[in-house]
Specification:
Blueprint: E1 5-8, H1 14-23, E2 25-28, H2 37-44, E3 49-52, H3 60-65, E4 71-74, H4 84-89, E5 93-95, H5 102-117, H6 120-129, E6 149-153, H7 157-165, E7 172-176, H8 183-189, E8 191-193, H9 196-202, E9 205-208, H10 222-227, E10 233-236, H11 245-253, E11 259-262, E12 280-282, H12 291-309, H13 321-325
Parallel strand pairs: 1-2, 1-3, 3-4, 4-5, 6-7, 6-9, 7-8, 9-10, 10-11, 11-12
The protein binds glyoxylic acid.
Length: 326
């Protein structure tokens, strides 16, 4: 029997390819630059499966172009690139990769936090410039992390992993969430609940860990920046559009907040020129970027995809109702 045809918009790690190739006839996009929309729509025409990245919009237009498609397997935990309702309406299963990237992404939120607090990037650029002539008492003085207050917006899997790491710095950790978590979990994580306004007023560092949804789009806007301490820093490893970037730039320009460290942007890979300033650390969406974690994500995405063609339930479905109906 012919293997089901699958399109993968990126070369995957060998462990993941092994899983895919054993069951499917896979066409891989092998260039670093993402396939253009036209290219993607052309390639997907006769495919039953798709392995995609968060850069690909899986919407009605794509689904119309892929009448045989049964599964869209996202190599990411966030799935704001997928129109889940459109997939469900057409009986297309959508899957993601939760769980395997929590610790790595939490590490990176901390990497950014420490980098902005201790001015690592500014220091690196200066060290390379050849302008370092002597050790000075006031050179690149940053701010302490130890004993400060960390505010976590969204205490899910990644937010909790960020909270656990704060213990080593003797920080006070406060959080806000759509739902307050049970008291015993609060106790084990050593976190205290605050409403958003209290969190904004108390935090020295605010780290965002909410998914991008209509209700979180532009969540961090001008009024929120004005409620933050002038000495506070914003860390964002979630999704760019959770922050109103123009408002952030205005707040940095007016010194309403002290700085920001960002991994994600409103219109990636475009970065607002107003963010390119010394008190902002910029990373190109690296939250989960370790060989170990990206391999696990690719393997999970491959496993999700092949499940469909083996007549099994994919382990991480976003819209399980699609299979329950049939
Ligand atoms: C990365 O941003 C992801 O959602 O996995």
């Amino acid at each position: 029997m012919a293997k089901p045809k699958v399109y993968a918009t990126h070369e995957l790690f060998p462990d993941a390819r092994k899983i895919l190739d054993a069951t499917c006839d896979v066409e891989y996009w092998s260039q670093q630059e993402r396939p253009s929309r036209d290219e993607l729509l052309r390639r997907i025409k006769d495919k039953e499966g798709l392995v995609c990245l968060l850069t690909e919009k899986i919407n009605d237009e794509l689904l119309r172009a892929a009448p045989k498609l049964r599964i869209a397997s996202n190599v990411a935990v966030g799935y704001d690139n997928i129109d889940v309702d459109a997939c469900s309406k057409r009986g297309v299963v959508a899957t993601n990769t939760p769980g395997v990237l929590d610790e790595t992404t939490a590490d990176f939120a901390w990497t950014l936090l420490m980098a902005i607090a201790r001015r690592v990037v500014e220091g690196d650029q200066f060290a390379r410039s050849g302008n370092w002539k002597s050790w000075n008492l006031d050179q690149f003085c940053g701010t302490d992390i130890g004993g400060k207050t960390l505010g976590i917006v969204g205490l899910g899997r990644i937010g909790s992993a960020v909270a656990r790491r704060a213990a080593g710095f003797q920080m006070k950790v406060i959080y806000t969430n759509t739902k307050r978590i049970p008291a015993d979990v609060e106790k084990s994580l050593n976190v205290e609940y605050r409403d958003m306004n209290q969190l904004l007023a108390e935090s020295d560092f605010i780290s965002l860990h909410v998914p991008l949804r209509p209700e979180t789009r532009g969540l961090f806007d001008s009024p929120k920046f004005h409620r933050m301490k002038r000495t506070a820093y914003l860390i964002n490893t979630s999704r760019g559009p959770v922050v109103d970037e123009a408002a952030l730039v205005a707040s940095l320009e007016s010194k309403t907040i002290a700085g920001a460290a960002l991994d994600v942007y409103e219109n990636e890979p475009f970065i607002h020129p107003g963010l390119k300033r010394p008190n902002v650390v910029l990373a190109p969406h690296l939250g989960s970027a370790t060989v170990e974690t990206r391999t696990k994500m690719a393997v999970m995405a491959a496993t999700n995809l092949v499940s469909i063609f083996k007549g099994q339930m994919p382990p991480h479905m976003i819209n399980p109702q699609v299979l329950k109906k049939s």
